[in-house]
Amino acid sequence: MPEKVVVIPTYNERGNIERLLPELLQVDPELEVLVVDDQSPDGTADAVEEMGRRLGRIHVVRRGPKQGIGPAYRAGFRRALELGAEFIVQMDADFSHPIASLPDLFASAQREYDVVLGSRYMDGITVVRWPIERLLISYFGNYYVRKLTGLPVRDTTGGFKCWRRKALLAIDLDQVRSNGYSFQIEMTYRAWCKNMRILEVPIIFMDREVGTSKMSKKIGLEALWIVWELKVRRALGRL
Ligand SMILES: Nc1nc2c(ncn2[C@@H]2O[C@H](COP(=O)(O)OP(=O)(O)OP(=O)(O)O)[C@@H](O)[C@H]2O)c(=O)[nH]1
Ligand SMILES: [Mg+2]
To answer: Given ligand 1 and candidates 7, 19, 92, 207, which is best to mutate, with the most ligand atoms within 8 Å of its CB?
Structure first.
């Protein structure tokens, strides 16, 4: 039974995942990886399965047509819990999230935290190679989320996090509605509402070099909307 599982959603990430997985497995001999793929046309899932046969400690969840990272992560978290993981990291496939920070995330969770967030906005702004428009949207988007929800977190939209089993069980994954970025906000907000102990640790975020972004206007707008929905749900005692 793996103690630590890293969940990675993929859509057309073959060029990244083939390099990422061997590096990840080297970080920690106890860690296992779970890739959640939504029928990537570039054959990501087949490539990962083949690597699993060769290297071990790799699992694949194959899903139907592309549905966004929210449903992909929910499926991945469920499988990681079934596998018996005590600590579950979520991470992008595109090398945006520094592998070097992985031990730090696990160690903080193991020490005493239920949710550990890799944060781009803690030591100033630690984002590399993002165009200024994208950085501004992200930075002020975070300000908006913080002000509206009261969530005491600098980086609410980051996607590099470590969950203690207990925190994922405290959140009813079936209730989680978000598909895109707002999934990150919604999950942390729900954990906070359940009084989970949350820690932010600084990370250096790098924009992707290989593959294409799945970010869209629709995903951005969903995030603006979801904070209101979460606020109302909480006020009604439904969170
Ligand atoms: N399974 C699955 N994975 C997805 C989906 N959309 C995005 N992903 C993966 O989720 C991770 C984050 O998506 P990205 O496209 O990197 O999104 P982003 O980080 O906002 O965009 P970039 O800044 O361009 O990297 C990547 O590993 C993607 O392959 C989806 O619909 N299904
Ligand atoms: Mg990315």
So the answer is: 92
